Amino acid sequence: MNINTAVSLAKGGKLLVLLGLKSLFTHFYRLSFYASMADTAILEQLAKGPVRIESLKGGFSKSPALRDATEAWLGLGVHLGLLKKNEAGYSLRGFLAKKLADPENDAIRALVREVAGLHHLYITQTPAKLEQGFLWDSAGPHSEYGDIIARSSRSLEPFLFELIDRILTRSDAIRLLEVGCGYGGYIIYAAKRRKRLNAVGLELDEHVAEAARNNVETRGLGDRVKITVADVRDFRTDDLFDMATLYNNIYYFPVEERVGLLKHLRSLLKPNGQLILTTGCANGGIEFELVNLIHSTTNGWGRLPDKDEMLRQFAEAGFVDNLATGLIPGNNYCAFTGYRPMDKPN
What is the pLDDT of residue 9? Predict the structure, then answer.
């Protein structure tokens, strides 16, 4: 680089800006590369490596052009420090890459894909949408990531399993309603935890509900756990519940509808029945800021609640003994609990 080029770059701080952003590029490329490997057969093969390009399953070396393309992609992984290459072929390099290949870390793989795909999309394209006066459609990109989001949400399982252990202290029969049961992980855990627990899980997505039914049946719980396709706002029953749970889904309801939703849930509970609601709250960790962005900018959904706001809404809906408990230190991820009051004697 000659002096004229250096002076040109130095004007207005261009060089400092470029150098500062270049370090961010590398982090972005690494995350993107992790996401590109997740849920692919090539990750499994690289985990067992070293493996040569011609040994990779699929069309990676069917033509000279495909081989060059595959070598370019693998070469990027080597340059980023996520793969290594020797005479025997390519393999994973580093703790994170190897752990990503572990089937036990399926939720983390899904989260990586969600961040690199969906979160990136919302961050980069939201300003243009808002400038045009539009919000995202709930049937848009978010719906395409439904399965990935369901899987990534399991990263919160340890904290919610601990919560379930704390709230299921009764030894008598319990009738439970779970709103938005997903693939059934939490309702199954609760049913296994308490042999005298009977539960109804509500799920909007027929595909997800069918998967939940299969999971319930596989674990021999079909006689005690029923999965129903329904919107909770339309759900009615004369057989009231001892407990209702909403895990990580209050932001799928507009803010102005939440008190009405909570009132409806109170009507589904027996006197002294308990409501348990978990959610990230405003001003929490960066991952919840992204949840807030996505749901604030999607038509028909709503922003994350403030902790005090959620407690006020519980009270407005007629719940008593309301309490907020932090589940993840320093992350503003909370469990809100309240009770339907006992009926007043005539």
Answer: 59
